[in-house]
Amino acid sequence: MKRLLPLLLAWALLCGCGADQPASSQGPAAGDTQYFFAMDTLMSITAYDGDTAAALVAAQQEINRLEALWSRTRPESDVSRLNAHAGDGTAVPIQPETAGLLETAAAAARESGLAFDPVLAPVMDAWGFGLTESEATAVHRVPGQEELSALLPLTRDLPQAAALEDGSYAAALPLAGQAVDLGGIAKGASAAYVVQALTAHGVENAILSLGGNITALGSRPDGQPFRVLVTDPLDSEESYLCTIALGGGLTCSTSGGYERYFTSGGAAYHHIIDPATGYPAQSGLLSVTTVAAGPALADAWSTALFVLGLDRALELWRAGEGTVAGMELILVTEDQRIYVTQGLEEGLQLHGEEAGYTYEIVRR
Amino acid sequence: MRLSAAERLRPTPGDALVVLAVLAAAGLVFFLLLPKGGNFLTAQIVLDQEVVTELPLSALTGAVSFDVPGAAYPITVEAQPGRIRVAHSDCPSQDCVHTGWVSRAGGQIVCLPNRLIITVTGSDAPQADAVTG
After folding, report:
1. What is the pLDDT of residues A261-301, one digit of tens each?
2. A with B: how many residue pairs have Cβ under 8 Å apart?
3. Is the N or the C terminus of chain A less surrounded, counting Cβ atoms within 10 Å?
């Protein structure tokens, strides 16, 4: 029996080691992966070269630093202080990263005709989709038209950010009751900083998943582009529409009503609110995936295009100029048609045909 | 196995047997956990970055139900042959419970308030490096 005890202990230890096997046996040369929760979502980073241990620590620290600036729920964040002084004329000092993100967000808001709106927070809060911290405890409800009509005027004036003479930055919200919420762009924007942190530690090949925003740095260990599965919006836990090849330096981001929603009186209400109406967007789309060189833009525009709908999205893509024209798109309609722009055709694998989806490559 | 006092600290044939048994066990575990052509499903439960357990879903012969130790909000996981779900959670969001049964490779159940991730892996999942959406 005395011989059996160490055997059992050794067995237990081995089972612990074995736990890593399924993950590491999937790639030819598995990288180091770090999973963590930040910005109210699950994130993972896999680095394949360089000083991976130090790089992953630095990457996570960078996310934590940015979350401390951009969170709506931390009272000392740039965003919280900006919101606390809405309408009182105070120019709130903010970090350069926040000023840069506000500028990027405002540009996306203007170019999309406010289909992406970084100051939609008062309306989001009314639905219970607002403050990320309260998402867990939020009471979702359908606000009345009167209530929404009173809130909508607060959602259109973008924050004014300015560079001061001493090189620092300040920003202000023009109207009392206004609030910035960068939830629709912050995760994407973080990717650029994470890539910098990784690169500084010699990482040349990595893949980032920041709450469904996937950023590829370099390529897979076998030299091929990273492969990314696109979730089936009708069976988001288990099924996929397709696999796309994501080239180095590109980010893909997906927005869909299936991600967060509640039901009331037999109707489903999802979290992508159309800033024009204050109600969940009814554009006929189930999900939008954007692939872009700018991670913040991929994030913001997946939401904007979901609100704008299929026709407008393809119109912007075909336009030849503008931000969307430089992206690739996957647009999924309620009648299970999937429109994939031509730049994603190479490396595309389809998985949704059995589930009833039909596919079309959209060309210019 | 009669041993003199001086030999008591030396490796004995018995110890060698233990080493062999451990090596055999290691090989066995390795092969059991390797993805196979026959779609063997495994569920990995991770709480706050620590692997709590791995369940060979395909090898289960009956239902298993257990509370995840150390969870901030008490959470009960239920596994049956080939599938797994969060049967009950005291967390405020209940997203994990609403996810329901996951029975395919690539499936995932996340409980954000508990920092808990259940990932189902197996050989029938489309091979990919990441998931968007």
Report:
1. 888 999 999 999 999 999 999 999 999 999 999 999 999 99
2. 130
3. N
Token duo for residue A317: 């893509």
DSSP symbols for A23-83: HHTSSSS--EEEEEEETTEEEEEEE-SSSHHHHHHHHHHHHHHHHHHH-SSSTTSHHHHHH
Strands A358-362 and A337-341, by their bridges, are parallel
- CB-CB neighbours of A75 under 10 Å: 10
pLDDT higher than threshold 80 for residue A15: no
> Per-residue pLDDT tens for B90-130?
998 888 998 899 988 888 899 999 999 999 988 766 678 88
Residue corresponding to tokens 């960068």: A182
Total structural domains in chain A? 2
What is the ipTM for the molecules in this complex?
Answer: 0.83
Terminal C-alpha separation, chain B:
63
Q: How confident is the model at residue A42 (pLDDT cuts 50, 70, 90)?
A: confident
A45 exposure class (CB count in 10 Å sphere: 0-12, 13-18, 19+)? buried
**CATH architecture of residue range(s) B42-121:** Sandwich (2.60)
A206-210 β-sheet, strand order: A32-38, A41-47, A206-210, A213-217, A251-256, A285-292, A328-333, A337-341, A358-362
A352: domain CATH number is 3.10.520.10
The CA distance from A114 to A307, in Å, is 10
d(CA A293, CA A287): 20
Who among B14, B46, B130 is closest to A207 (CB)? B130
Tell me the residue ranges of DSSP E strands in A103-257.
160-163, 169-172, 206-210, 213-217, 226-231, 240-246, 251-256
- Domain boundary at A172, A188, A214, which? A172
Cβ contacts (< 8 Å) between B117 and chain A: which residues? Answer: 35, 42
Any CB–CB contact under 8 A between B24 and chain A? no
